[in-house]
Amino acid sequence: MFPILILNGRALAFDSMIEFESRSVTDSGFGYLGNIDNCFTSGKATWPWEYGAFNNTCIPTMLSKNKNSCKDGGVGGLALITNVGRGAVYAAMLTAMPVGTIFALLAMGIEYVIMIDLCTNAYIVAPHEYINFEQGWVQCEEKGANLVLNTHPNALTAVDVPFYYHCDPFYDPDTGTTLKSGVEEDEALIGKTWGYMGAASPYCAGNAAKYAKKDMVGKVVVHYVSGWDRFWSGLNRCKAGGQGSPKRQELILAAKKSDNDKYQLPAHYHAYYRFVSGVGKVQLCVVTPYTLLPIRIGCSYVPPPAEDLDLDEFLKVYLQDTRCYYFITGRSDLNALGKSLRDTDELGIQKKYVKDFLSSDMHIISTVIGCMQDLLMKVFIEPSGANVNGQKPFFQIVQERLKQIVYAALVLYVTLVGIKIITAAELPQRGELIMYVIKFGLVLYFATGNAWYEVKNGEKVGLYPALLSASSEIAGFFMGAQNDNDPIGFCQYQLEGFNLFGEREIPVSAVIQSTGTEGASSGYILNQTLQPTMGFKDKVKITVWDLIDCKLLNYLNLGSCKYTIAGLIGVWLISAAILVSMQGFLLGVVSFIYCQMLLLVIFKFIHIFILSMFVLTILVLVSPIIICFALFDYTKSIFQKWMQLIIGYILYPALLFAFIALMLATFDSVFFGDIDLVNNRNDIKKACTGVDSVFCTTYEAVGADPCSANLGNINGTLTETFDLGPLGKFTILKDIFVGTYLDAVLKLMLFAFLFYLFLGSVSGFLAILTGVQDLGSMAKGSINIAAIMAAVGSGRAAGGTSAAANESGGVKGGGKGGKEGGGGDKVREGISAAGSGGGGGGGIPGGGS
Questions:
Q1: Could you tell me if 794 and 787 are in contact, meaning their C-beta atoms sit under 8 angstroms apart?
Q2: Measured between alpha carbons, how far is 239 from 133 in angstroms, rounded to an integer?
Q3: Cα–Cα distance between 725 and 729 in angstroms, integer?
Q4: Composition bias, kind Gly residues: at what positions (predicted)?
Q5: Is the CB of residue 365 less than 8 Å from the CB of residue 606?
Q6: N or C: which terminal CB in the chain sees fewer CB atoms within 10 Å?
Q7: What distances in angstroms separate CA 722 from CA 15, 103, 110, 719, 731, one per listed residue?
Q8: What b-and-e string marks burial along 812-846, b requiring 16 or more CB atoms within 10 Å of the CB?
Q9: DSSP string covering 234-250, please?
Q10: CB under 8 Å to 802, separation ≥6 — which residues?
Q11: Cis peptide bond N-terminal to 98, omega within 30
């Protein structure tokens, strides 16, 4: 997907049917003979020093600390012995003049003809081509000299299906069997078998799951066209092979399986593995080891080995009930939810893109925030509410250590109140006495009780969990209002009368019956396949951060509905456009700044939110002592400030969401433009007519709904291969799309840059409003452009002023600097952020001495 420099443009074999078709002619007779491959100039013939590679019939299907038990084969040695023996026989026959010589030359001629036939007529069918044949998505057209393309609108490409894979966590391709739960040996392999891409991967989500071929993992498909048939009848473009095809025979091979199966191919075939160091991937190659010289037919990529993460067992157990565990396994909870939802919501609106997003593995922000919340609560609150490995929750230990201080403060309070009552001229009013008792009880409860946390039925409840989630709950109001105005509804899914994206908990056992409105069919049902979110008993947790993830991904994929790294068009435009033209170079720079500024705003905001959670945690941690300060008038102000900070650090990040909502609303106006879907809900093409926006640009460039197009088709539509000769080949953006994207992305870049500059000011303003410390300057990702410019400007001013001082002799500068230096001292007393008084007052370096 990303532009790749191909250092060696010459293919050593036919690695795909399209490559074979592009290098073959359809002519018969002498036209065919003029196109035959002599095996040497194409590099398909292998030499004796290469035979050792044929033994590579074993690769570890799982990367782990345990040694791999499989062994390589010995075909390379047999091929060498066979060829040496054949050479010796032919040499002996050549010396037996004339009969032996004739037979030797005749035999070598026949073998060479077989070699030429294989080099010219045998090829590999790439995995995506194999699926295309199954689906009937093959429609080849010649596009100029030596170029044949599959122009079927639904045709898959190598981007969509790079290798054969499967989506069954219980299937083991090595043995061809199904793993069983409860069996110790099988348990270690479930979800880690070779070729299993993961439930949340882009290969097992949405339509891509239909292309999974678990019986083809670790195999390669060879097609062979009879040279004799081509001589008499010519070649028909892009025909399927197999038993039903008289023109093209098919052979499916796996490593260590060297035979011709039931087809009459003209040689013995052998499959072996080859590591391509240039791209860091493994190929399964096919060779004919026993021909006159072994012929490499071609290669096909295989899935990477599964990885057994060698994590510390204690760490895995510790993280298992938190959302941090999803960094290991992926968001299986949201993936299951995405697969369970119907393609249309309760309003009858098509929402396949929402399902694709939920089924993806791009829930980065929500997982990070959820992980931090769960870890903080885990430190404070153990899931069982009891000791774990002999250790108590941290906050419980703090409470127990401070109990004596709390009790001492309470005793002192009772003593002082008693003395006050005894020494008073008259008894206090009943209301005043009641307040004494209430204050005593509240301090005792909040300082030593379980008001801050409690575990009920496996769920964490109490003030502390409520404080950590309060900001997100408030933020939901701002984000929900902004998301309602999304004209396309990329991040909208109506469920039980509310949008799915927000602070919601969906029961795992949910079966939702709803008649719906606006033509929706009755009986809307959630399938019974939901998985609870880690740390939430029998519930799937949806947060406002999932909405931000969804919005961010749509801004980066430019409306292509592709929620994978490869689908982030806005990212790969940076390099795809850089070599097109000067305008393309500008688009690459603009795309880079746009992506960087957008991510900086979001990441800085995330850091502020996480810092706020840590501050709240510290405030709760010191609560046993601070709450005691409420007992006495002299220390009550400390308690009040503590309360103000708690409320402030709840509101501070929550109100920042209003800024984020404003930013997203502005982005939507640029991203979608003035799309009128009220009257054109089912006709986006009509709604995009005459609209200058990023979404409409992508829609018109693809020529169809991007949500229904394959990623490979989008890539093929927007890009082309550019040959730089000895430097290799590059994938670049087509020149016709550069100008249309430049206008749209430039607007997004400008707004992203402005909002990045505004974030610091807004953060400081809200800190003053809520009475807390501004965390914006502490958050990473800050680039203080104003400070840099000020530093440059002050340096130039200082240099110019110094020159003026030298010309005037420094007399006036010295006097005035000394006079105003005192003023600078007063300024320092009032404003701690002021610079050096003498230099600042005099305006001339050294003038105030």
A1: no
A2: 9
A3: 7
A4: 835-849
A5: yes
A6: C
A7: 20, 51, 41, 9, 6
A8: ebbebbeebbeebeebeeeeeeeeebbbbbbbbbe
A9: ---SS---STT-SSEEE
A10: 844, 845
A11: yes
In Å, how far are 304, 352, 669, 678 from 682, measured between CA atoms? 41, 14, 20, 10
**Run of H or E residues at 646:** helix 636-672
- Give residue 505's pLDDT: 87
Q: What are residue 730's DSSP bridge partners?
A: 722
What is the rounded distance in angstroms from the CA atom of residue 331 to the CA atom of residue 567? 19
The pair of structure tokens assigned to 691 is 């609209």
Q: If we measure between CA atoms, which residue out of 443, 439, 410, 551 comes closest to residue 492?
A: 551
Closest CA to 846 of 806, 792, 788: 806
- Pull the structure tokens for residue 252: 């499916």
Decide: residue 513, CB within 10 A, 0-12 exposed, 13-18 middle, 19+ buried: exposed
Amino acid letter at 690? Answer: G
Any idea which residue has 């939507």 for tokens? 668
What count of residues does the chain have?
849
Average pLDDT, the chain: 78
- Give the Cα separation of 36 and 294 in Å (integer): 17
pLDDT tens track for 151-204: 888 888 888 889 999 988 888 888 888 888 778 777 778 888 888 887 767 788
Q: Is 223 helix (H, G, I), strand (E, B) or coil?
A: strand
Q: Which token pair is 480?
A: 């929900």
Domain ranges in the chain are: 17-129+218-307, 394-452
CA 139/CA 126 separation, integer angstroms: 16
Record the tokens describing residue 713, joined without a space: 């088709």
DSSP-derived secondary structure letter, 567: T
Quick one: angle between helices 352-359 and 332-340, nearest 10?
160
pLDDT for 348: 82
- The position carrying tokens 């012995």 is 81
Contact 53, 12 (CB under 8 A): no
